[in-house]
Amino acid sequence: MASKSLNIAHRGFSGKYPENTMIAFKKAVEVGCDGIETDVQLTKDKVPVICHDETIDRTSDGSGFISQYTYKELLNMNFGVKFGNEFKNTKIPTLDELLAYVKETGIYLNLELKNSIVLYEGLEEMVIKKIYDYDLSNNVIMSSFNHYSMVKCKYIDAKIKTGLLYEAGLYKPEKYAEYVGCDALHPHFLSVIHKPIVEGIKSKDFLINTYTVNDEKYMKILIDLGIDGIITNYPDKLKSLLLS
């Protein structure tokens, strides 16, 4: 069992700041997170940008698919105003901006490839190249609900770390992880809340990073179970528990 669970800020400090923005990432680091979980999409002109949804409707004052806009066009959109007027000048970050910040701070980074709905051609190669451009292969784990994509990442570079996102209560998930070939399992936390499941996964030396844990009651349970990484919208709450 891990001696200390990593405090991983879900889309940055998304409980108090506009998700997947540089301010959310920086505020998460300020409150003492160990790492950040975030999402990568591709613009029309193939610029990797940070956004959870395939569309910009929920998080900006624009609408439509990210893949329909160039990066320059997306810079005209406001990615903070829906969270509060004080964030009205917030822009969509590029993957380069985030990787430069990770390089500066030395934090852990979980990059989720958003390629289950829009199958961005070449996304895996592009993201892996950028990870190496910034010399961050030791800091980064890639993840996706698209497990074909994670297999492709290992084919491109066997040394790149990958995690399989899932929500179902898999039977003996460690056997599936062995079959697919990965470094970690990234389940919804309720899928691994039972000790025998955790012990089975750990017996095969796979990491467990759970999402998205905002209730302190469950944070405590997962810490006691020795979960490797806890992904939360409230890294401040988790930090307090990890210090207690």
From TrEMBL:
Q: What is the top-level taxon of the source organism?
A: Bacteria
Domain GP-PDE per the UniProt entry, residue ranges: 5-242
Would you indicate the residue range of the signal peptide?
none
Q: Which PROSITE patterns match?
A: GP_PDE (PS51704)
Extract the InterPro entries matched here: GP_PDE_dom
User: CDD domains annotated for this entry?
Assistant: GDPD_TtGDE_like
PANTHER family per record = GLYCEROPHOSPHODIESTER PHOSPHODIESTERASE, CYTOPLASMIC, GLYCEROPHOSPHORYL DIESTER PHOSPHODIESTERASE
Q: Would you tell me the protein name for this molecule? A: Glycerophosphodiester phosphodiesterase
